[in-house]
Structures are given as C-alpha cells and as structure tokens.
Design brief:
Elements lengths: L2 H10 L11 H19 L6 H6 L14 H21 L3 H13 L11 E2 L1 H10 L10 H7 L8 E2 H12 L2 E3 H11 L14 H16 L6 E3 H6 L2 H6 L8 H6 L4 H14 L9 H4 L9 H10 L9 H12 L4 H11 L6 E2 L1 H17 L7 H12 L7 E2 H7 L2 H9 L1 H8 L1 H17 L1
Antiparallel strand pairs: 1-2, 3-4, 5-6
Helix pairs in contact: 9-10, 10-14, 10-17, 17-18, 22-23
Length: 437
C-alpha cells in the first residue's frame, strides 16, 4: 500500500469524537502530519519537513559584488583552475592515435563495404584498455546512441571515433568566451575606468583576437587546449596588476587604452555615423595609402552587410594588418591576394596588385618602379619551392611575409621598403647627433 492510499483511507475514516466536523485547515494539517510521518518512516527516519528541506542542495550562488575583492579573485582563479582541469581531461594526439589503434584491433567482422564495425563486447574491451580519460565514452548509452540498423548489433568504428573527437577535445564557443570575459571585467583593476555602456564593445574586441588567431577556419569554436597554450589569457589576466606600466598597456590588445583606440578609430572612419564602414570610409584607415584594388578584395571576400563592414569584420581587418608577421594574419591577407583562388600567387596576381601601387606613385608625383624589379625581389625574398608560384606556406616559412604583403597593398609601406637604406642611414645620423650633444 502506498502513502497516497494510506492518506486516502485515513482521511475518509469517520470521526466519532465530540467534534465530528473538522475545519478545512485541520484536515490540511492532518494530511501534512500523515505525509511527514510516512515519508520520514520510508525515507530514512527524518523527523520533520525542516530536516527534509535542509537536504535540498544549494543550486544558486550570488555573484560577488565589485567591492568584494577576495571573492572576485576567488571566482577568477576558479575559472582558471576550471580551464586547466578541463584541459587535463582532454585527449591529446597520442591518446587519440592509441584509441584508434585499439578500435581497429578489436573490429568485429564482417565489414560493411569499407566501414569497420565493433560489437558491444569488444567495445567494452577497448574501454578497459583505452585509459581513464576515455572511460566516459565507453558506456551503454553512447553505444545505443550510435547503434542504428546493423543486423549484428554493431556500431561504426569511424562514427564512434568522430564522436570522441567532437566530445573529447573540449571547445569553447564564441558565446562561452564572451560570457567569461564579461564576468571577468569587474575583477581586472586596469578596466575599472571602462563605462558599462562600452562593455559589449570591449568584449567583442577581446574575443575577436582569440577567434582570429585560434579559429583560422572560422568554425565558431576554439579548443580549450589552444586557449591555454597561447599567451592571450596571460595578457588578459595581466590587467589584474594595478601598477601595470603605460607601455605595457599600450602593447596589450586587451587593455582599456588599446580597446578604446581601436573602437575610436572605427568611429572616426564612420563619417556617416551609421555604425558601418563603406569602402570609401575604410580607405582612410592608417595612412590612407592602401590601394583601391586591395580594398575591393577586402569587400569581396569579407563578410559585409549591403556592401558595408561591421565592427567585428573591421576587427579582423585590423588584427591582420597589425600582425602581418603572424601566420593567421598572412592567411587572411593571402586569401585577398589570391584573386584566382588557386592557392598560390603567380606573376599575374603580383602584377595585378602592384599596378595599383604604380598608379598611386604617379598620382603622388613619384616615378613608378619597374614591376619586373619588384617581382624578382619578391621571389628572391620568399624563395618558394616552385620558382613560379608562391604558396601561403612559402610566405610563412620565408619570414618575409609582412614585407611582401606590404609592398603589394600599401603605397606608404612600399615607399618605406624602397627607401629603407636611406631611412636607416638617417636614423644613424640622428643617433650620432644625439650622442654628440
């Protein structure tokens, strides 16, 4: 007999005492007393409802206030520890290779076409040998999830391995990182001066650097291992230092002065104040000497809205141009230079971009430089594997990618390269004059 039946019978029993009719409140009290009595008896002898409620786990913890410094630091450190713990749980390449070897060794015939299969018995054997990090994947629930129509009750080894790859490498999506940085802002003394109205732009600016460099394929997620392995998190947490020097702040992308500089430039370029940048507006970026041909390619290849660029797309553009030595930045620019989408630059594509430099030189009253000379210099600098083609990897390996791209897209950059020896001599003369004084 269950407790509901007990209550029903007890409450249905007529009362033969002097007060035959009970009030509605008395009936409710009696029902609660009976419920408490039987619940306590059947669930371990709890004496009253207060004790029952005490056993409910706490599921909400308020966020620490801005002036609760210790709690803020504790929250910040716990986040860092969480990321590190998650990283330790992830499978590295060697562990993934070992898992694949074990799965292949324990495949269950017959194959379906070229697809290897595995039954539940062998699945469990692999789970025992694969190591503690893999234990979470070798469950009946996972097996059943991947079990479809195989008449032998097996699952595809490749499908299971791909499942592990997706679940076992640990990623943060853009929204995860946005929330993390938004919650981190109040804990960083160097960001105390930021207006709350600027928080969303700051978060966008900060998150963009992570995704520009760590998500080159634009999948919308980054491996936690990659976040921990790079220096960006250290740069961000450097803002905890209340005495961080002005020089350090200026070189730190995540600092308030840096974020305000980038956003301020965006606002200054936005002459019609519609929150977006047209090609004409973007042409005034930096020294305003980028070629129209290059800017055309930016608006052809990058995400735009009715032919105009938003702040997030602008951040990618800035990160590429300010970090031209970095592989991710070179990849961004290389895609723009590869007008035929062949995966390499040839004489035609180099000439296509350099003609625009020559035209700007004429406009500014300078004698155009021969393309043939420039082309030879570029190939000498890069030394590509194929003497007629320059690949992205060739550019990266040469350590001259920043120079080559600058020559092709920016008149001021080309002029600086052409006059590098004169500029060095001038700097030496100035240094000598200062020493004399």
């Amino acid at each position: 007999m269950d407790w509901k039946e007990v209550l029903r019978r007890r409450l249905a029993t007529p009362n033969n005492g002097p007060n035959k009719k009970k009030s509605e409140q008395e009936l409710k009290d009696e029902e609660m007393d009976l419920f408490t009595k039987y619940y306590s008896k059947w669930k371990g002898g709890r004496k009253n409802t207060n004790e029952f409620y005490k056993t409910i786990p706490r599921f909400y913890y308020r966020l620490p206030a801005e002036d609760e410094v210790l709690l803020q630091k504790l929250r910040e450190e716990s986040r860092a520890v969480f990321l590190q713990r998650k990283s330790r749980e992830l499978l590295d390449n060697e562990e993934l290779q070992n898992l694949w070897f074990l799965l292949d060794k324990h495949q269950t015939p017959p194959m379906i076409g070229e697809e290897a299969m595995i039954n539940y018995e062998n699945f469990l054997k692999v789970g025992e040998k694969a190591g503690p990090k893999c234990k979470q994947f070798f469950t009946a629930k996972v097996f059943a999830k991947l079990l479809h129509t195989d008449s032998y009750g097996r699952i595809s080894i490749m499908q299971f391995f791909n499942y592990v790859m997706r679940k076992g490498q640990g990623y943060l999506r853009e929204s995860d990182l946005e929330n993390y940085i938004l919650e981190l802002i109040p804990t960083l003394p160097q960001l105390d001066g930021l207006e709350k109205s600027f928080y969303s732009f700051y978060v966008c600016t900060a998150v963009r650097k992570f995704f520009f460099f760590l998500d080159p394929l634009r999948t919308g997620k980054i491996k936690i291992q990659d976040i921990l392995a790079c220096s960006f998190l250290d740069d961000l947490l450097e803002l905890r230092d209340e005495e961080l020097s002005k020089e350090s702040q200026e070189t730190n992308w995540f600092s308030a002065p840096s974020a305000l500089r980038v956003y301020g430039q965006y606002l200054n370029l936005d002459k019609d104040h519609n929150g977006m940048l047209s090609k004409e507006e973007l042409s005034r970026y930096g020294t305003a000497t980028m070629t129209n041909v290059f800017l055309d390619r930016v608006f052809q290849e990058c995400l735009t809205y009715d032919g105009e660029m938003d702040y997030k797309t602008y951040l990618d553009f800035v990160l590429a141009l300010e970090n031209r030595k970095e592989p991710a930045a070179l990849q961004y620019i290389f895609k723009l230079l590869d007008i035929e989408n062949k995966g390499y630059l040839n004489v035609f594509s180099l000439n296509y971009f350099f003609r625009a430099i020559q035209e700007l030189m004429k406009i500014h009253g300078q004698d155009p430089v021969s393309f043939q000379d420039v082309k030879d210099e570029i190939f000498d600098m890069v030394k590509p594997k194929d003497p007629l083609k320059i690949s992205l990897q060739d550019l990266i390996n040469s350590n001259q990618g920043d120079t080559v791209t600058t020559i092709l897209i920016d008149l001021n950059g080309f002029w600086t390269y052409e006059n590098r020896e004169a500029l060095v001599a001038n700097d030496n003369e100035n240094s000598a004059d200062l020493d004399d004084t």
